[in-house]
Specification:
five-stranded parallel beta sheet, about 525 residues, Rossmann fold, about 30% helix, globular, alpha/beta, GMP Synthetase, Chain A, domain 3, binds xanthosine-5'-monophosphate
């Protein structure tokens, strides 16, 4: 495994991770590196191919991210995309200029099907463009292999030196044959073997974990989320009872979630591991009583979580390894991989390492994208309901109850949320909406039920479409589905007499309510 890899050199483009994901979808392992990465390191890695990403700059400006001429002389096929294509031309003696009009959106392109890049592609095809600058003159040795009405060089190549420049974005799904173009690059040009598959990942990871852990003791914090579940099962397959999983039920989980996690990982489940469920609900409710400030709530939940975990860890005694469910986007976004401008703080296991007595951290999913984690989960036989679970924040329902938290409010939001999720699934919309849930507003209002006046809480439903969870649009849920959910919530959940649907996009809203 990982005998071959392709590297993506990141120039700050918004699609950097997407490029790497597409390459992996083609069966080739791929990693992202900053454009600042030294030529020496690249040479040492000996990649089968090098892909230069897009980026927001103009390559002819002085302080713009750049690369050395030698990068193109390593004898490794290079594919430049958008900014990467322009940079390739600029560095090798071509010309890049500002265009009169920005070319943006789906554009019809003519391609030269005798080029290896476009083998098997129709001569006229639709691609996704997003650029101000354009290549006005190719570098010596290159010839044009694709063009559009406004863009004379939509693609150019120098096949003798194995250099390829594409102005459009093959990684974006709007480029009709984007995946085939990348496939051509990987297999016809880089001659990859394509040995990156999740079954072999699982197999070789299990082998590597066994070897590393020997007969050591391993501790894993299990949240029931996708990443920690897959990490736990992978570890358990490798080392069985040497693994102890601690699952803290903080009383802010979705309805029945604690029991669902226990059913999978507990003694009656299919895995042979030590499972400890800590029912700490009341501890959390007591600590949170009367607190309504969102950040304070988050802090209390985070701190209490660590305390509970620490107490359990102490009971187990010294462990050799602590497992974390870090995945590749976490690595890239914390600035270790590419050039990501947005650095997310990661909440999953904030602070734990300081509190637990262990020798080393194991991050078995560190190289995987989310869709790969899911595939690995399926390979490992984890139920689909768990593998395709939507994101759920660490502080749980604590940040979906606006204002102070009480056990009764938790019940209301859990019940309303369960109804909403059930109806969305019944309507077949669960794969279309990226995240959806109910949140309890802190508003009470007057209503009438039967002949009686009510003065109860309003619940807000939220459903969003998003790719990266950094921006989002409210999902258009059919009126009749919303109507049914409203009816059921009002009738079935005591304490709620009004239902809202949240139309706010992000920004200016956030996905969660606090
Ligand atoms: P926001 O509300 O910031 O949420 O638009 C973006 C995504 O992040 C999730 N989220 C969290 N996840 N701990 C987590 O593990 C948190 O404190 C947290 N806050 C938000 C949220 O569910 C959404 O998917």
């Amino acid at each position: 495994m990982k005998e071959e890899k392709v590297i993506v050199i990141d120039f700050g483009g918004q699609y950097n991770q997407l490029v790497a994901r597409r390459v992996r979808e083609c069966g080739v392992y791929c990693e992202i590196y900053s454009y600042r990465t030294s030529l020496d390191l690249i040479r040492k890695m000996n990649p089968k191919g090098i892909i230069l990403t897009g980026g927001p700059n103009s390559c002819y400006e002085e302080d713009s991210p750049t690369c050395s001429r030698e990068l193109f002389e390593l004898g490794i096929p290079v594919l430049g995309l958008c900014y990467g294509a322009q940079l390739m031309m600029h560095v090798l003696g071509g010309k890049v200029e500002k265009a009169k009009n920005r070319e943006y959106g789906k554009i019809v392109t003519e391609v030269d099907t005798s080029s290896e890049l476009f083998k098997g592609i129709e001569p006229v095809t639709t691609v996704w463009m997003s650029h101000f600058d354009y290549i006005s003159q190719t570098a010596p040795g290159f010839h044009v292999v694709a063009s559009t009405k406004n863009c004379p060089v939509a693609a150019a190549e120098d096949e003798k030196r194995d250099l390829y420049a594409i102005q459009f974005h093959p990684e974006v799904l709007h480029t009709e044959r984007g995946k085939d173009i990348l496939h051509n690059y990987l297999y016809r040009i880089c001659h990859c073997a394509g040995d990156w598959r999740m079954d072999s990942f699982v197999e070789s990871s299990i082998r590597a974990i066994k070897e590393k852990v020997g007969n050591g003791k391993v501790l894993c914090g299990l949240s029931g989320g996708v990443d920690s579940s897959v990490a736990a099962v992978l570890m358990s397959k490798a080392i069985g009872k040497q693994l102890t999983c601690v699952f803290v039920d903080h009383g802010l989980l979705r309805k029945n979630e604690g029991d669902e996690v226990e059913a999978v990982f507990g003694p009656d489940g299919p895995y042979d591991l030590n499972f400890i469920r800590v029912n700490a609900q009341q501890r959390f409710y007591v600590k949170l009583a009367g607190v309504d400030e969102p950040e304070r709530k988050r802090k209390i939940i985070g701190e209490e979580f660590i305390r509970v975990f620490e107490e359990e860890a102490k009971k187990i005694g010294k462990v050799d390894y602590l497992v974390q469910g870090t995945i590749y986007p976490d690595v890239v976004e914390s600035g270790l991989g590419g050039e990501s401008a947005v650095i997310k703080s990661h909440h999953n296991v904030g602070g734990l390492p300081d509190y637990v007595d262990f020798k080393e951290i194991i991050e078995p999913l560190r190289d995987l994208f989310k869709d790969e984690v899911r595939k690995a989960g399926l390979e490992l036989g984890i139920p689909e309901s768990l593998v395709f679970r939507q994101p759920f924040p660490g502080p749980g329902l604590g940040i979906r109850i606006v204002g102070d938290i009480t056990e009764d409010k938790v019940r209301m939001v859990q019940d309303a949320d369960a109804i909403f999720r059930e109806e969305i699934a019944k309507a077949g919309l669960d794969q279309d909406i990226n995240q959806y849930f109910a949140a309890l507003t802190n508003m009470r209002s007057v209503g009438v039920m039967g002949d009686e006046r009510t003065y109860d809480y309003a619940v807000a439903l939220r459903g969003v479409k998003t790719i990266d969870f950094m921006t989002a649009e409210a999902a258009e849920i059919p009126w009749e589905v919303l109507g049914k959910v409203m009816n059921r919530i009002i009738n079935e959940v005591r304490g709620i007499n009004r239902v809202f649907y949240d139309l706010t996009s992000k920004p200016p809203g956030t996905i969660e309510f606090e």
